[in-house]
């Protein structure tokens, strides 16, 4: 796949992003990071626009929000489903200049840097130009992404680790993006840096429909993008998928990922 191609791109991707977004969690994270009424907010890598809409609610009265995503189809979805006065969406690539967007009191970057194993440091430096002096930049991403499960068979555990390794090498994906966020803000000279570590994708007991859809899309789309062959399974992907479905729908299984949030204030 090319450097510009988004790893998880598919016809259902905007739906996956929308379903897996929990606005209650978004609200808690943003309040911890320092969002306040009256702020001008940018959501970089906004996906379906659902998170941007929550950020917009949190800066009322008097605030505004702009969601930015690289994909026109996701911007169209966001505009149709969440757009309103003071809440806007625009196409933009965080690997290039975003200076035309102006500056913001609060800039939010969640689940974006994991798709840029090389180049994420430069991307954060580029995004930081959007932050007003005295403004806040909040970075949030997963660590040990998709790698923490209990109840897997040995061959499935080996297969998932091989897939994740292949995603690193062939798709520039970073399963360990979260642990790097603090250093990015530190190296850029941000002040009042704070870090929060919590559980994400904490799945046990009965499986929610949104988690089933999210994870089955992950195992459907990502391995295909790197041409993974599933050599550990006599009948290839179909056999792997059947075993993964059985594992994931078993209420005994346990799955989680650490989520790391890092916020800092740009020197005035």
UniProtKB/TrEMBL annotation:
Species, as recorded: Geomobilimonas luticola
PANTHER family cross-referenced by the UniProt entry: METHYLTRANSFERASE
InterPro entries: Methyltransf_25, Methyltransf_Superfamily, SAM-dependent_MTases_sf
Keywords: Methyltransferase, Transferase
Domain annotation Methyltransferase: ranges: 41-135
Gene Ontology terms, MF aspect: methyltransferase activity
GO BP of this protein: methylation
Record protein name field: Methyltransferase domain-containing protein
């Amino acid at each position: 796949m090319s450097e510009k191609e988004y790893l998880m791109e598919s016809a259902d991707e905007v739906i996956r992003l929308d379903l897996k977004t929990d606005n209650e969690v978004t609200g808690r994270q943003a309040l911890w990071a320092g969002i306040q009424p009256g702020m001008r907010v940018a959501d970089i890598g906004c996906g379906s626009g659902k998170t941007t809409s929550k950020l917009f609610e949190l800066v009322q009265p008097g605030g505004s929000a702009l969601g930015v995503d690289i994909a026109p189809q996701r911007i169209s979805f966001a505009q149709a489903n969440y757009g309103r006065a003071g809440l806007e969406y625009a196409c933009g690539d965080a690997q290039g200049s975003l200076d035309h967007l102006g500056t913001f009191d609060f800039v939010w970057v969640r689940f974006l840097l994991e798709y840029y194993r090389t180049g994420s440091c430069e991307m954060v430096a580029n995004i930081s130009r959007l932050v007003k002096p005295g403004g806040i930049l909040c970075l949030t991403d997963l660590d040990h992404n998709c790698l923490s499960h209990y109840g897997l068979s040995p061959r499935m555990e080996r297969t998932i680790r091989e897939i994740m390794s292949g995603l690193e090498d062939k798709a520039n994906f970073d399963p360990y993006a979260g642990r790097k966020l603090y250093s990015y803000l530190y190296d850029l000279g941000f002040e009042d840096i704070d870090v929060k570590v919590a559980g994400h994708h904490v799945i046990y007991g009965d499986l929610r429909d949104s988690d089933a859809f999210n994870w089955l899309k992950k195992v459907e789309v990502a391995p295909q993008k790197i041409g993974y062959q599933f050599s550990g399974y006599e009948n290839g992907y179909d056999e792997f998928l059947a075993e993964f479905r059985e594992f994931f729908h078993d209420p005994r299984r346990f799955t989680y990922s650490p989520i790391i949030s890092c916020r800092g204030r740009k020197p005035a």
